[in-house]
Amino acid sequence: MTDTAPSRPASGLRAHPILIFVAVTWLVQAGLGWLSIQGVVRRGWFEWSFLIKPSAALVMAYWLDGTRGALGIARPLVRFRAHPGWYLFAFTLLPAILVASVYLHRGLTGSLDAPVRFDWWAFQKPYYKMYFVIAAMSLADEIAYFGFVYTRLAPRITGLTAALWIAVCWSISYTPRIFMESEMMADSTIPLWLFILNFLTLTPICVWLYGSTKSGMLVSLSQITANFGLLVLPVMPKTAGTLAVFGIMVALMGIVSAFLVHRYGARYLTVSGQAPVFGA
User: Fold this and answer.
1) Are 212 and 233 in contact (CB under 8 A)?
2) Exposed (0-12), middle (13-18) or buried (19+): which is 255, by Cβ within 10 Å?
3) CB-based contacts of 232-235 (< 8 A; 24+ apart in sequence)
4) 271: pLDDT confidence band, cut at 50, 70 and 90?
5) Is residue 203 part of a domain?
6) Residue 244 placed within a domain
7) Residues 247, 230: Cα–Cα separation, whole Å
8) What is the pLDDT of residues 35-63, one digit of tens each?
9) Fewer CB under 10 Å: which end of the chain, C or N?
């Protein structure tokens, strides 16, 4: 079910690799944020602090399982062989949820006739650094939370439980960006509970995609398309002018996740061993 599994007896610090990983990455990011507030380091250093997560994951994997472990968590990122239907799923599901959230909110508020304000600025005036950072953040999260955290959790607990643990770790890692009001994929107007719930509803979808294809590339592509969708569509509270659209998005992701758990089971949360959704 996984590409890597601990090969050395767990003892001492080795018995708590995920806890160490979460603590170290959060402390480094929060520390950089505090130093940037104090003017000790440039704010740009904090914006690039997401690189701490894949770096720490690779170091931890090497510490636990040597070169085999480090290569094992990176290998899924270049695994691209999958049925085209999985690519269709990765490219369309989350953007479709974003669009549905916008129009469902407009339908509920009786404003369907008003034009939707799409923020095309980022594409009319290309900001290539932003494009690169958003893509890099998605790749970094895949290495950290699916290449490392998921593959260490999956042999021990159910797929759904692993997804929930990943969601907690994932949301914690982004809290420094919220408090710092980062320019990259953060909105301090979102309540912390809803921000965490966002990850709790998103992660089962990602785990289902990753567990069914063993492709980190597909998970990254789904995140990249979703993040670019958040740039263009009025979903985040600061661009929508209301928290309701973001809340509807979280609810829709929760419905999709609940369907996947019901259809494929909480134990594996994957189509492996069953009739594949998109063929072999």
Assistant:
1) no
2) exposed
3) 232/118, 232/119, 232/120, 232/122, 232/123, 233/98, 233/99, 233/102, 233/116, 233/118, 233/119, 234/102, 234/116, 234/117, 234/118, 234/119, 235/98, 235/101, 235/102
4) low
5) yes
6) yes
7) 14
8) 888 888 787 777 788 899 999 999 999 99
9) C
CB atoms within 10 A of CB 126: 10
pTM of the model: 0.84
Sign of the dihedral defined by the CA atoms of residues 82, 99, 126, 240, in that order? negative
Q: What domain count does the chain have?
A: 1
**Where residue 182 falls among pLDDT bands split at 50, 70, 90?**
low
d(CA 164, CA 173): 14
Assess whether pLDDT exceeds 80 at residue 119. no
DSSP alpha helices (H): ranges in 109-243? 121-124, 128-141, 151-153, 159-179, 192-213, 216-232, 237-240
Structural domain range at position 34: 12-264
- 180-189: buried (b, 16+ CB within 10 Å) or exposed (e) per residue? bebeebbbee
User: Is residue 276 one of the residues assigned to a domain?
Assistant: no
